[in-house]
Amino acid sequence: MGATMTLPSPATSFLEEATNLLGQRGLTSDPELVETWLTDWRGRYTGRALAMASPASTAQLAALVKLCAAHRVPIVPQGGNSGMAGGATPDDSGNALLLSLRRMDRIRAIDRDAGQVVCEAGVILQHLHEAADEAGMRFALTLGGKGSATIGGLVSTNAGGTQVLRHGTMRAQVLGLEAVLANGEVFDALTPLKKDNRGFDLKQLLIGSEGTLGIVTAATLRLLPASNGRVTAWTGLAAITDARALLRRVERDLGEALEGFEVVPAHCLDSVLAHQPAARAPLAGRHHWNALIECVSSSADSSDLRDKLETSLAAAMEEGLLDDAAIAANERQAEDFWHLRDSISAAERALGPAMQHDISVPVEKMPEFILAASPLIEAAFPGTQAVAFGHLGDGNVHFHVLAPAAAVRGEWEEAEGKAVSARVHDLVCEWGGSISAEHGIGQMKVDELARLHDPVALSLMRSVKQALDPDGLLNPGKLIAADPTACT
Amino acid sequence: MGATMTLPSPATSFLEEATNLLGQRGLTSDPELVETWLTDWRGRYTGRALAMASPASTAQLAALVKLCAAHRVPIVPQGGNSGMAGGATPDDSGNALLLSLRRMDRIRAIDRDAGQVVCEAGVILQHLHEAADEAGMRFALTLGGKGSATIGGLVSTNAGGTQVLRHGTMRAQVLGLEAVLANGEVFDALTPLKKDNRGFDLKQLLIGSEGTLGIVTAATLRLLPASNGRVTAWTGLAAITDARALLRRVERDLGEALEGFEVVPAHCLDSVLAHQPAARAPLAGRHHWNALIECVSSSADSSDLRDKLETSLAAAMEEGLLDDAAIAANERQAEDFWHLRDSISAAERALGPAMQHDISVPVEKMPEFILAASPLIEAAFPGTQAVAFGHLGDGNVHFHVLAPAAAVRGEWEEAEGKAVSARVHDLVCEWGGSISAEHGIGQMKVDELARLHDPVALSLMRSVKQALDPDGLLNPGKLIAADPTACT
């Protein structure tokens, strides 16, 4: 029957059905529209895709996922494509559907009294900040990619940023969640309940699962009352251990007002100043270490806070914890301080090839880790230089290893660079730390996770993945490698 | 071969092997020792058990669980046996091993600088409070059963209590976790990392899973600096909606210092005063509602806090939010206020039969829920009286329905009482709430959860349970009912 018909290929049939579901705007195979999303923003990973789907609603996405399940089409969810680990880039098989959540960009509701906002997955972080601001509130998570990063991506990767010290990672902001599961069912846990002990907290399982267990479509997020100004200081220190002691002192003196504490070694500041001739050093002298400190006032008056921070820093100077300090005179200068911090990655990249590591160890141990690990790496790989900067108060630094002067970009990374990273990760594990503090695993660290993570945890993760996505269609190849001993 | 031997029964063989593993002290079948643990503390559930195991260490427990897996012996973990939902009581088959964690009661380490303590599962909450106190710190979760509740039980049930408003439930206190899985492997995630994005947060999955996914053996818990005194107030109000407005005002004025806000209707206070002739009413008049407010000072001086609370309450009185208020003059009086609050359950029980419901709705909606639900229940079940008290700031109240005057204890609960509970739970679900805010599901609410919970969430939970405990040996019959449509 029908033997004379030209049967459509399975892929064609799938694409037709998907177009019927999503409309022309919802599905495209046009290379000009798709190509830019097939490479991650840092240009490290490039893949191919069957097409790019852009559903307009959770219901459309649920129907699409059901269709994918029926046709066994893998799905690679993508938000702002600003991830750091290649988690939103498909492999090069071309079998997968690239799923853009960017069209689902509505803020469904904002409730000032309850301090809550319901965002769809495609809402850009910057837009959320603006909407919160207009409502006289604030959303207490921010990071460099805020102009492109989406709520769905931030939830799926449990993003961090520079306010984790006080407000926690994305996990701490999520009060409710909506997601489409591998079978196309909608998991609706958007209603925020402060206390709810009806079994396993499935929301927590989805947060940080990088689209491998479900596709986050919306989240109810915590809003805080708007702040009443901030006080930002740049300090110069002799040693990283002093930075830890300084952090403790400021925590004790300023309490909950302390929101940011970032450390910057001399090398990073030098690089930024060399890379951006217009930038100015905040302090007169050169210091081995710098700490950028930010306090935020929630009460009516921030002059009080300024006095408190001045007193605290003066006492710290008395104790010999710091050599010099400048408190930003105005908002403009505070922005300048932060701009120095935010320019480190770009400035270091301009210097030449480097391997970057987003690592954490127990908070208390980080200064000692930096002091111990840096010379070990530099000795094992002559000519390299280890540079650590970032979120000392979270036990999380970006540990960059710069290549020797003669190294060729694109070659060194593949040759010596990989060995450098393996050694850094080995050290992190020896210190009880994490090879991914805030960037996730994506495709970049799948092998390293499989090599270094606790086998019991890996096996648990595989069991959960198998249970929730038995056909392996959700973001395949990301986060967990297939079990090498499995007999499938 | 060996046909003339008397073969031991499988159970005997298991018990012998278990005794070899745990020693005489670690395993007993002596009814006198076991019996008291076969009934929950409120006397609602009684079960039977093969024996009671009391391992001395995680390693011993891991070996025991492996043995149980080999012999297909179900395990019912138990801490202080002070749960509210029968979650630690075995069924009456007598097939299960009752597993006491009480012998594992070491505080392994306390780190003042890092603000952390590592407790074994059997550490009693009261002991943790004392140990923290000795170290100049405090553990910010407390509840009525603190003299018997253990850390393992508190983690497994994600316990709440009276400080959740400010400090969150047990989940928020857990920085690291150790558990024995169904196959006897040890999941070791005790090392606390403030930022760690290595895949699914398995720790979160175990918290609140009531021993159905793994057996918590130890936890790293958050400690806070010791407080510098508290200020406790008892206030009288005309309406529950005023209580919500009062809470908002005090939150705004006192900020992070506000730690407790409990509401008590006139009926509850009357019951307590009638039940405890020595107790005194904190205020001269009788008020429809009372709110117990507690603020805790973390800075050097609490007199400041007292002034602030006085000012805040005076302003609230100006606004007509409250009719009268008394601030405890000293620690003794503060204790007396709390004693009134903590005596409600016992006093209400003394009045006659009642159905108790531990429910939550979105925080903002709780006053309206109480106002709407109480008359509906009282109309549907003539002669009953609905009484709601507790954690208004968490959207969580204990919603008790007192039986009609003529009701006979032990009969009414089984007859009309069950219908009352079903109706209360229906209403809670209509309001988007939870039928278990802080007590968990245990065996008490398994059927109601299966009846009322989102089928998508239930199915997800069953998948996770199947993945982590495929033989169903961990606390069987608790939390999730077997899938009625499953064809096993």
From TrEMBL, chains A, B:
<dbReference type="Pfam" id="PF01565">
    <property type="entry name" value="FAD_binding_4"/>
</dbReference>
<dbReference type="InterPro" id="IPR006094">
    <property type="entry name" value="Oxid_FAD_bind_N"/>
</dbReference>
<keyword id="KW-0274">FAD</keyword>
<dbReference type="InterPro" id="IPR036318">
    <property type="entry name" value="FAD-bd_PCMH-like_sf"/>
</dbReference>
<comment type="similarity">
    <text>Belongs to the FAD-binding oxidoreductase/transferase type 4 family.</text>
</comment>
<dbReference type="InterPro" id="IPR051264">
    <property type="entry name" value="FAD-oxidored/transferase_4"/>
</dbReference>
<dbReference type="GO" id="GO:0003824">
    <property type="term" value="F:catalytic activity"/>
</dbReference>
<dbReference type="InterPro" id="IPR016167">
    <property type="entry name" value="FAD-bd_PCMH_sub1"/>
</dbReference>
<feature type="domain" description="FAD-binding PCMH-type">
    <location>
        <begin position="45"/>
        <end position="226"/>
    </location>
</feature>
<dbReference type="InterPro" id="IPR016171">
    <property type="entry name" value="Vanillyl_alc_oxidase_C-sub2"/>
</dbReference>
<dbReference type="Pfam" id="PF02913">
    <property type="entry name" value="FAD-oxidase_C"/>
</dbReference>
<dbReference type="InterPro" id="IPR016164">
    <property type="entry name" value="FAD-linked_Oxase-like_C"/>
</dbReference>
<dbReference type="GO" id="GO:0071949">
    <property type="term" value="F:FAD binding"/>
</dbReference>
<protein>
    <submittedName>
        <fullName>FAD/FMN-containing dehydrogenase</fullName>
    </submittedName>
</protein>
<dbReference type="GO" id="GO:0022904">
    <property type="term" value="P:respiratory electron transport chain"/>
</dbReference>
<dbReference type="InterPro" id="IPR016166">
    <property type="entry name" value="FAD-bd_PCMH"/>
</dbReference>
<dbReference type="InterPro" id="IPR016169">
    <property type="entry name" value="FAD-bd_PCMH_sub2"/>
</dbReference>
<dbReference type="InterPro" id="IPR004113">
    <property type="entry name" value="FAD-bd_oxidored_4_C"/>
</dbReference>
<keyword id="KW-0285">Flavoprotein</keyword>
